[in-house]
């Protein structure tokens, strides 16, 4: 069997959305699972939509997702260059070869004859220059008329190709326009350049979205015209998004963050995103496993695990998976990941806060709201001190806070162990239930019903001075 070689060939016309990332991931996983090669190729022939930093952005995204090319613009390889704008002579050579073999022709139309014909069901170019005589062609060339090179499509019959997910797909040749292969400025079109490059770079399997199915017959005909062996085609179903009203449509900005970078900025771990995206249209055979390392994904991946049905991007499921990754992290690693949100704390408190937060967050951007009360105490609200379950009222809270403050004022060793010991002793001596004592202390310290960590954890994080200020302030207002 020939060596498995796949490619990811993005256009630098924007940033990588989830569908792009999934395509790259599946191509990478399949190649690596078969001991093959994964190639990054930049298809930058659409110069009008070129975004200057898009290539660097694509490469950074792949690196963050741990999708590492074996060959590419900055990885080397025997088929370099891997940027299409640097391969212009190659495309010109093969376009001229098609013209010489009668499978393409020079089109000199510049508007007046470039309109669709009512007689053509494909609704495209009217083929005005398709049958120019050699003399007419020579006159146009001698006059310096600009031209494009068009593919000469068969006018009858059908083109059939096999897709791993969708089986045999047949399209009538009458629906195929004589597409442009080489533009008048010498720049190739996508449909031409990607076929030439896939053949020359020995790509064995082409994995891409279903939006390319209608273009594939044109590609197949080019392979046939050149006498080249066809690669294996795998067209992936789209990734869908669910709107607030429950309707499902192709994933877009209206559904929320839709690019890898957007999700990173929202505070999801790169490896959690990659893991989740892997399951958007693929599932391991004979396994219910959902959490995978990259090595485990490679070991488990196979084409027969792919689905031809659209996948729905579910933020609830992503939140769950991200939370599982956070829980599995060490406190130090989580503190490092969340560093930008924990700058107000010393090293020890960062680690301790990490131990409280990592089991409670789905994404790092949840942290600021969860710990905002540690920096700025919310407005006082006496009603928060009412807790029917623990039989606590604002008046009862004042009775509990006063002696608790006196005990805490005497604490010099403001550590968790000491605070736990002193608060525990106070609960025992008071004869009250733990919840009855802890409720007013928690509210006085945080002014919110739910906090990461309990009373002693909040005391430790705030420090002695700030803790006593908050407790005394609450007691004064309650009194």
Tell me, what's the shape? elongated
Given helix and strand content, the structural type is alpha/beta
Helix percent reads: 40-55%
Cα Rg: 32 Å
Q: How much of the polypeptide forms β-strand, as a percent range? A: 5-15%
Profile the largest sheet: 3 strands, antiparallel
Number of E-state strands: 12
User: Whole-number average pLDDT?
Assistant: 92
Q: What distance separates the N and C termini?
A: 84 Å
Widest β-sheet, arrangement of strands = 3-4-7
N-to-C order of helices and strands: EHEHHEHEEEEHEHEEEHHHEHHHHHHHHH
Unreliable runs, pLDDT <50, ≥5 residues?
A: 117-121
The number of helical elements comes to 18
Gist of the model:
With 479 residues, the chain is an alpha/beta fold. It has helices at 18-33, 54-64, 88-100, 134-142, 190-200, 216-226, 260-266, 270-278, 294-300, 315-328, 331-337, 347-357, 367-375, 394-409, 416-430, 434-446, 455-462, 464-478; strands at residues 5-8, 37-40, 104-107, 148-151, 158-163, 167-172, 180-182, 205-209, 232-236, 239-242, 248-250, 311-313.
């Amino acid at each position: 069997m020939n060596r498995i070689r796949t490619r990811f060939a993005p256009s630098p016309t924007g940033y990588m959305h989830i569908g792009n990332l999934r395509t790259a991931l599946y191509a990478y996983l399949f190649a690596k699972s078969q001991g093959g090669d994964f190639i990054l190729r930049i298809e930058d022939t659409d110069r009008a939509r070129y975004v200057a930093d898009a290539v660097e952005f694509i490469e950074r995204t792949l690196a963050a997702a741990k999708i590492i090319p074996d060959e590419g613009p900055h990885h080397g390889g025997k088929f370099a260059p891997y940027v299409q704008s640097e391969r212009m002579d190659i495309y010109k050579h093969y376009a001229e070869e098609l013209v010489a073999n009668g499978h393409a022709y020079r089109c000199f139309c510049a508007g007046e004859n470039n309109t669709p014909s009512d007689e053509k069901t494909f609704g495209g170019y009217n083929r005005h220059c398709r049958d120019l005589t050699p003399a007419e062609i020579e006159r146009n060339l001698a006059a310096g008329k600009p031209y494009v090179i068009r593919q000469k499509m068969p006018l009858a019959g059908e083109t059939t190709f096999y897709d791993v997910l969708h089986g045999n797909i047949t399209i009538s040749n009458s629906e195929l326009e004589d597409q442009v292969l080489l533009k008048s400025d010498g720049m190739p079109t996508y449909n031409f350049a990607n076929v030439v490059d896939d053949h020359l770079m020995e790509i064995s399997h082409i994995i891409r979205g279903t939006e390319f199915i209608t273009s594939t017959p044109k590609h197949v005909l080019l392979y046939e015209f050149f006498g080249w062996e066809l690669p294996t085609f795998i067209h992936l179903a789209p990734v869908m998004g669910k709107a607030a009203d429950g309707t499902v449509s192709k994933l877009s900005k209206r559904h929320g963050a839709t690019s890898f970078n957007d999700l990173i900025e929202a505070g999801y771990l790169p490896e959690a995103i990659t893991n989740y995206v892997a399951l958007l249209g693929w599932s391991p055979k004979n396994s219910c496993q959902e959490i995978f390392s990259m090595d485990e994904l490679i070991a488990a991946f196979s084409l027969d695990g792919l689905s031809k049905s659209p996948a729905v991007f579910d933020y609830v499921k992503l939140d769950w998976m991200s939370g599982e990754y956070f829980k599995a992290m060490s406190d130090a690693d989580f503190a490092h990941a969340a560093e930008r949100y924990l700058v107000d704390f010393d090293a020890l408190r960062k680690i301790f806060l990490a131990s409280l937060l990592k089991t409670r967050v789905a994404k790092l951007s949840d942290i600021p709201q969860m710990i905002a009360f540690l920096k700025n105490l919310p407005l006082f609200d006496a009603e928060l001190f009412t807790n029917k379950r623990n039989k606590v009222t604002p008046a009862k809270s004042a009775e509990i806070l006063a002696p608790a403050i006196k005990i805490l004022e005497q604490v010099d060793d403001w550590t968790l162990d000491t605070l736990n010991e002193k608060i525990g002793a106070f609960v025992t001596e008071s004869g009250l239930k733990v919840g009855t004592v802890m409720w007013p202390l928690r509210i006085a310290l945080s002014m919110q019903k739910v906090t990461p960590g309990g009373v002693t954890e909040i005391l430790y994080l705030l420090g002695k001075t700030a803790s006593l200020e908050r407790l005394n302030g609450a007691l004064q207002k309650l009194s």
